[in-house]
Design a protein that fits this description.
Elements: H1 2-5, H2 63-66, E1 81-82, E2 85-86, H3 99-105, H4 118-121, E3 125-130, E4 133-138, H5 148-155, E5 159-164, H6 166-181, H7 211-224, E6 230-238, E7 249-257, E8 262-267, E9 276-278, E10 308-310, H8 312-317, E11 327-331, H9 342-355, E12 362-366, H10 391-399, E13 403-405, H11 407-412, H12 419-424, H13 437-451
Parallel strand pairs: 5-8, 5-11, 11-12, 12-13
Antiparallel strand pairs: 1-2, 3-4, 6-7, 7-8, 9-10
Helix pairs in contact: 5-6, 6-13, 9-10
Length: 459
């Protein structure tokens, strides 16, 4: 499995963790400002584009650039140096959805799923570094960065399900944490010391001698941090990889949000016949008032044999239609390539597409993200690496009515960064395939722009 078998082949590279200076006299922000902050240390500013005070600026700006009437530069244009690393310009304290920022930032239209062909337009752009981590800006439209309240309003009455491996897990966890607390996890939490980071299980002092204990801590801690405007049930346990029976490992996570939205992660690994499995059928998770009572075990301790188990093809036709899923995002490309099983992939995609409920944007195939080196998938579950590009899967998705989120293209553009910034895009202390927290934040912003008409939110 990816998160068990990877071995970094270079010395560890430190992750981002820049401290942003607080404005003198600046009031604190509420939890739903959409700013990136550490809820455990209550830092005031770590938004991808935080505000600055002239006395606190660590960049050299001209008087014209400081003029509030001047047009703000594009976020990808380097401006100044911070700790020896190029930083992006400071734009506004407001969410990127705000009309004030839109008027000053660019003549490009806002990314909007109803008007801009978002799925394709979002894939092409560039990455840059800000005080809050790495930031992605599409070329053809402006990415909206909504507050958590805005995003919850978009997802109200909808059920977003992610099915896949550990990369999907971290997308789910960072999004669930943001929607619940109003804060994104910080890159500087990615250290192999307590309190650990939801962005990588090995930050909980992972090693072979403490394998089971570390996973229990990870499940318990990541579950406890999804509190506030959401709550999570974690049907989770792991003593080995990669059995498809819950007595060895299982990870299905169900978050209910204020406003009635639901977010689900189902683990899928190894090969096309590997069974999704667990103790609570996904269709039984719609009612939060009874959901916790359906699971008698604590996160990380759900070790009894599976009460349900189905491979993807069967699951798409039987259980998925009963789960009232309105939006689904699929990828397992680092474990097995859909191009190796074209007939089964067609059946899976057709079943998922037909199972989507009303009120959402339907099903999406998320292309496989790049590792730190090379253009091949990483070895997982004893399988040989395969090309990252999986054209059969993309063609099958489109043929069966799935949209495509081209995260292969998005993450490939990380390689245009200077070497120190590129290394910092990965959880390099642990492996060469998982990302820093800010990269997952940007991928989730792209997802939200693809499935939500964010201009309709009550900001």
């Amino acid at each position: 499995m990816i998160d068990e078998e990877l071995r970094p082949d270079s010395p560890p590279v430190g992750n981002l963790g820049t401290t942003v200076k607080r404005h003198r006299g600046e009031p604190g922000h509420t939890r739903d400002t959409g700013q990136t902050r550490d809820t455990r240390t209550a830092e005031s500013h770590n938004h991808p584009n935080p505000p600055t005070h002239p006395r606190d600026r660590e960049t050299t700006e001209s008087a014209a650039a400081a003029d509030s009437t001047a047009a703000a530069p594009e976020p990808t244009a380097p401006r100044g140096r911070l700790g020896g690393v190029t930083t992006v310009p400071v734009l506004s304290r407001f969410c990127a959805c705000s009309p004030e920022m839109g008027a000053r930032n660019s003549t490009r239209p806002w990314c909007n799923p109803d008007t801009t062909g978002t799925a394709e337009s979002l894939a092409r752009g560039s990455w840059s570094l800000s005080d809050g981590g790495l930031v992605f800006e599409p070329t053809s439209c402006r990415l909206r960065r909504p507050t958590a309240k805005c995003a919850r309003e978009c997802l109200a009455g909808r059920h977003l399900m992610m099915i896949g491996d550990s990369l999907s897990r971290y997308m789910y966890l960072t999004l669930a944490h943001f929607l619940s607390t109003g804060a994104w996890e910080l890159d500087k939490t990615l250290k192999p010391v307590p309190p650990g980071s939801i962005c990588h299980e090995k930050s909980f002092i992972w090693n072979r001698s403490t394998y089971n204990t570390a996973w229990q801590i990870y499940y318990r801690e990541s579950n406890s941090r999804i509190r506030g405007h959401g709550n999570e049930v974690c049907d989770c346990y792991r003593v080995d990889c990669c059995s498809d029976d819950a007595s060895a490992m299982t990870e299905n996570r169900y978050t209910h949000l204020d406003g009635g939205g639901r977010l689900t992660f189902l683990n899928q690994l190894a090969n096309v016949q590997w069974r999704l499995h667990g103790h609570i059928p996904p269709a039984a998770t719609w009612n939060w008032s009874v959901l916790p009572s359906l699971l008698s075990c604590a996160p990380g301790e759900c070790s009894s044999p599976s009460k349900w188990a189905e491979n993807l093809t069967t699951f798409a036709r039987s259980m998925l239609p009963m789960a009232n899923v309105t939006d689904a995002v699929l990828n397992w490309g680092h474990h097995w390539s859909p191009d190796q099983a074209p007939a089964e992939t067609d059946a899976i995609f057709a079943g998922v597409a037909s199972a989507m409920g009303k009120g959402g944007k339907g099903a999406w195939w998320r292309t496989t993200t790049v590792p730190r080196r090379g253009n091949m998938t990483l070895r997982g579950a004893g399988k040989e690496p395969r090309p990252l590009s999986q054209p059969t899967a993309v063609a099958s998705a489109r043929r069966n009515g799935l949209h495509v989120l081209d995260f292969l293209e998005v993450t490939s553009q990380l390689r245009a960064l200077p070497p120190n910034q590129y290394s910092a895009a990965f959880a390099s202390r642990f492996d060469d395939v998982h990302y820093s927290c800010s990269v997952y934040r940007e991928l989730n912003y792209i997802l939200l722009n693809a499935i939500c008409a964010l201009d309709r939110c009550d900001m």
